[in-house]
Design a protein that fits this description.
Blueprint lengths: L1 E3 L7 E3 L8 E6 L9 E5 L2 E4 L6 E3 L8 H4 L2 E4 L6 E3 L11
Amino acid sequence: MLKLKEEIPTGIICVKDMKDGQIGVIVKWSNGWYLGRIVQRYDDYLICLDEKKGKSWGKFFASPNQHYEDCQVRILEKGEMLIVAEDEDDACGNG
């Protein structure tokens, strides 16, 4: 699992406003399993960077959809560090 080394308070944006290549942490989403997860936007994909088996949502940004309307992320800033932490239960409940 990836975690932030320390929190740097910054603005929060809707996930649909992420720019290609940006990395952020999910701070609000009706799909609560992914709260706190580190994600990156790549073209029309949203990729979860800290899943054991890899997780991405293809064509996530291609057209308006209900999945991202309530998803908010905090974009990571230059200088923020990620650390590899001891595994906790993954988003699917696997330890």
